[in-house]
Design brief:
elongated, single chain, alpha/beta
Length: 331
């Protein structure tokens, strides 16, 4: 055996011995570790501590009213200070009575925008949102109706223009969601209701608004993590959210030469009436627990992203993106 071969054999033997020593050290460490890892606590990384599971076991009747929630969502974002990023602008928000829409309306007003709220029939919630917007020193009009109806979309835009004389920001946010355990539970009627609300509604609102949007205006669509990852029990809802993401990018391309930006926010689980109006009282108690942060977001943790995407001073060079805010690592 040559010296080179002996030297190589010795090196190989030493490497194997070193790797076995590392293995033995890790094996010993694993043996000392408790068999059941301690449960991870909800992550709190924001301006204030937010609610975590277990959440109140409550099932709401659709369309779901925030006024009926045993644990009211946090939407006022008291630590957020406005700086006139939207001064003199006007926003129209669908699904603006509660949840994310309410939180966005409040922050838009804090940044100096007047707000029109389109909603279905949750009048008590809408009036409370209107009160909160007016408390920020801005005007607010309420426009009840169904976004599935193109005539309502035209009416909502017309009422906004009549009240404020302009339209700068359209937030498409209204949604319908109902779980199904499998494809066999989904009939065409339910499938159509979800699509006509979630994607047809966005189309109708955008088509009504675009002729009145000036250079520097924007459209922000509410997508979802389910549109990025899918969801076993939200087949139709996930499909609409994927369609919204594609619609966002395509419309951004279509409108870029007009100086109109189009973006989307894709939230993960958020504590709004939408989810207790879908999940059972038992299931809602663990809502959001599967995220890396081990809890759902509150609306006030999502709304600043809409301000960022609405304000030309922040995002004038951004269009056609889907911004995930999921409480988990990665998109």
């Amino acid at each position: 055996m040559s010296a080179a071969v002996r030297k190589n054999a010795a090196r190989v033997t030493a490497t194997a011995r070193k790797q076995r020593a590392i293995q033995t050290e890790q094996d010993d460490s694993d043996a000392r570790r408790p068999r059941k890892p301690p449960a991870k606590k909800a992550v709190q990384a924001g301006a204030r501590v937010q609610p975590a599971t277990p959440l109140p076991g409550q099932h709401l009747r659709k369309p779901g009213r925030e006024a009926d929630m045993a644990l009211p969502p946090n939407f006022l974002a008291p630590a957020y200070e406005g700086s006139n990023k939207l001064r003199g602008m006007v926003a129209l928000i669908t699904g603006g009575d509660s949840g994310i829409g309410r939180a966005v309306g409040v922050l838009f007003a804090r940044e100096g925008a007047d707000v029109a709220l389109a909603y279905l029939n949750e009048h008590e919630d809408a009036r409370e949102t209107q009160h909160c917007i007016e408390a920020e020193g801005q005007a607010c009009v309420l426009i009840p109706g169904d976004v599935k109806n193109p005539a309502f979309a035209r009416k909502a835009v017309a009422k906004t223009l009549k009240a404020f004389g302009r339209l700068d920001i359209l937030v498409n946010n209204a949604a319908f969601q109902e779980h199904a355990r499998g494809l066999e539970e989904l009939d065409e009627k339910r499938f159509e209701e979800t699509f006509r609300t979630n994607i047809f509604g966005y189309f109708h609102m955008a088509k009504a608004a675009v002729p009145h949007l000036r250079r520097g205006a924007c459209i922000i669509n509410t997508g979802s993590v389910t549109g990025l990852e899918g969801s076993a029990q939200l087949l139709d809802y996930s499909a609409t959210k994927g369609a919204i993401h594609a619609f966002t990018k395509s419309l951004a391309s279509n409108l870029i030469d007009k100086g109109i930006r189009v973006n989307a926010v894709a939230p993960g689980p958020v504590w709004t009436p939408l989810n207790p109006a879908d999940k059972s009282a038992k299931d809602i108690r663990r809502f959001g627990e599967k995220t890396d942060m081990k809890r759902p977001a509150q609306p006030e943790e999502i709304s600043p992203a809409y301000v960022f995407l609405a304000a030309p001073v922040c995002s004038g060079y951004i269009t056609g993106i889907v911004l995930p805010i999921t409480g988990s690592i990665g998109a």
